Structures are given as structure tokens and as C-alpha cells.
């Protein structure tokens, strides 16, 4: 039996021994859904330590019992590839998108059997998002990940995968009519999320705020952008994600031009954005900023 099967079998045995149904163990499904538990018990996915700790707490047993003598470890090389995946910007460039998509495929091929469900879910979200950005043809996020999407409105504190799902949803909303109430509800919750000690979380927190701002930008609804841009600046300064500051300045330029009709302030934002892009040596980012400035005719 594989590690997944051994741990899954042990979890099911302990759950049944304690008299819990899957539904009663999962409770409100904020920490663990019934579907996730079923996949774990069937040996189809490896639970993360966080989910194992939750199961152990509910069943009132120690973690070692659930592990059944097995250990859960992820190869160090995976984290190197994950870092590149999160920190490698595309700015919509086809070649960079193709490289990121290949990174996801390489990770699947090398580490699928070693990764817990949260990591596989993260990769699936990234893969779907990249595919949509490339082709604009993937199924709606709220349909593919229906159960997880519903949970977003029940939670106060989001995980990195929650943020990835919101980003995926928001990016799809940028290119089609969207439900204003859903985006606004998610915006409120995302803006309430605190900066973490987890670098990956902070990268995605910034990306999610940016994706929501992109919905308003692409639908020419500029008024909400300033509040989102202010939050993005705070995250950038606190987490030193300066490579994305030029994009935030472009958002601000659009706000100043279209809401406040302040051409001088918009020009200042564009000039500062271009200066930073040149200092980073990123020609694609610089070209994108110039294109947006030409669109705005300033």
C-alpha cells in the first residue's frame, strides 16, 4: 500500500471507531470538506499536516496514531520549483506564460505522488488560471471548484488556496459580465486579510487584490481602484514585492485620470512606473506600461 492509502485507511478506522460520520467530523466544512475527507480515506489524496491535526483534534487522538508509522515529507527541489512558479512574473507575455505552464507540468510529473492535497489543489488552481490567461477558454472557477467557492463566503481567514481561487475567479470576471455583489463581497473579505509570515501567501495576497482591481479596471469602473491600490502599496512595502509596484502605479494613474481628472497626477504615476520598470530591467513590463500610457493619451 502507498503512504496515501495507509494513512487514509487509518483515518477511516479511527473515525468509525469513534463513531463519527464523515459529515459530523467535518462539521461546518471550514477546515475540511466531506469530499476532501472521502478522497483522503480512499487513498486518493495525501492530507496536509494541518488537516491531519484537525482530524486528530476532532477525534481526540494524537497525530502519530493517524500517521500509522508513516512520515509525510516533500522533496526540497519541489520548493525550489514552487518558488520560481510564484515569483516568476508573466505580465501577460505568451512566452513567459508558456514557461510557467511547463513548470506546473514538470511539478506534476515529478512530485504528484509526494504532494498533499493542498499542494495539488494549489497546482490545479494555478494551472487553470494560466490556461485561462492563455486561452480564455476554461470553465468558470465557481463551477469547477463549486464546493470550495461556496466556502469563501463562510470564512473570515483565507488560506493561500482561497486567495488563488478568488484570483482565478476575478481574472475570469475581467473579460466578461460579472456579478457585482460577489466581487464586492470577496473584495471586502480580501481587504481584511492580514499580511503573513508566509512569503507565498503574501505574494498571492497582493496578486488577489490586484486581480480584483483588474475587474474594475477592465469594466471602466475606476472609483474602487484607489482603495485597492492603497492596500497594494501597504503589502508591497511590508513584504518588499517591489517588482509589482509599477503595475499598482498604472492602476493609480487610471484612477487619477478617470475619477479625479487629474492629468498631472496620472502622468506622475506613469513616469514613476516607467522609471521603476527600467530599473528592474524588465522590457516586457516597460512595454506594457508604455502601451497603457498611449491608450490614456498622456
From TrEMBL:
<protein>
    <submittedName>
        <fullName>XRE family transcriptional regulator</fullName>
    </submittedName>
</protein>
<dbReference type="Pfam" id="PF18710">
    <property type="entry name" value="ComR_TPR"/>
</dbReference>
<dbReference type="InterPro" id="IPR001387">
    <property type="entry name" value="Cro/C1-type_HTH"/>
</dbReference>
<feature type="domain" description="HTH cro/C1-type">
    <location>
        <begin position="11"/>
        <end position="66"/>
    </location>
</feature>
<dbReference type="GO" id="GO:0003677">
    <property type="term" value="F:DNA binding"/>
</dbReference>
<dbReference type="InterPro" id="IPR040799">
    <property type="entry name" value="ComR_TPR"/>
</dbReference>
<dbReference type="InterPro" id="IPR010982">
    <property type="entry name" value="Lambda_DNA-bd_dom_sf"/>
</dbReference>
Amino acid at each position: 500500500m502507498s503512504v496515501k492509502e495507509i494513512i487514509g485507511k487509518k483515518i477511516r478506522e479511527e473515525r468509525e471507531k469513534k463513531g463519527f460520520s464523515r459529515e459530523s467530523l467535518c462539521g461546518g466544512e471550514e477546515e475540511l470538506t466531506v469530499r476532501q475527507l472521502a478522497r483522503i480515506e480512499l487513498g486518493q489524496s495525501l492530507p496536509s499536516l494541518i488537516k491531519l491535526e484537525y482530524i486528530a483534534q476532532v477525534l481526540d487522538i494524537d497525530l502519530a496514531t493517524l500517521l500509522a508509522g508513516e512520515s509525510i515529507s516533500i522533496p526540497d527541489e519541489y520548493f525550489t520549483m514552487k518558488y520560481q512558479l510564484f515569483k516568476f512574473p508573466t505580465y501577460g507575455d505568451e512566452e513567459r506564460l508558456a514557461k510557467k505552464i511547463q513548470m506546473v507540468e514538470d511539478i506534476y510529473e515529478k512530485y504528484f505522488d509526494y504532494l498533499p492535497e493542498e499542494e495539488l489543489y494549489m497546482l490545479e488552481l494555478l494551472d487553470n488560471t494560466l490556461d485561462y490567461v492563455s486561452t480564455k477558454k476554461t470553465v468558470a472557477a465557481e463551477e469547477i471548484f463549486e464546493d470550495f467557492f461556496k466556502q469563501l463566503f463562510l470564512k473570515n481567514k483565507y488560506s493561500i488556496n482561497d486567495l488563488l481561487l478568488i484570483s482565478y475567479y476575478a481574472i475570469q470576471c475581467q473579460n466578461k459580465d460579472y456579478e457585482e455583489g460577489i466581487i464586492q463581497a470577496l473584495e471586502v473579505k480580501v481587504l481584511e486579510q492580514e499580511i503573513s509570515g508566509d512569503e507565498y501567501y503574501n505574494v498571492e495576497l497582493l496578486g488577489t487584490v490586484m486581480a480584483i482591481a483588474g475587474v474594475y479596471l477592465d469594466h471602466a469602473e475606476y472609483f474602487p481602484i484607489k482603495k485597492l491600490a492603497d492596500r497594494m502599496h501597504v503589502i508591497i512595502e511590508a513584504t518588499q514585492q517591489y517588482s509589482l509596484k509599477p503595475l499598482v502605479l498604472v492602476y493609480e494613474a487610471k484612477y487619477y485620470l478617470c475619477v479625479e481628472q487629474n492629468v498631472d497626477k496620472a502622468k506622475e504615476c506613469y513616469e514613476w512606473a516607467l522609471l521603476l520598470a527600467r530599473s528592474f530591467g524588465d522590457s516586457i513590463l516597460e512595454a506594457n506600461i508604455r502601451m497603457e500610457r498611449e491608450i490614456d493619451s498622456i
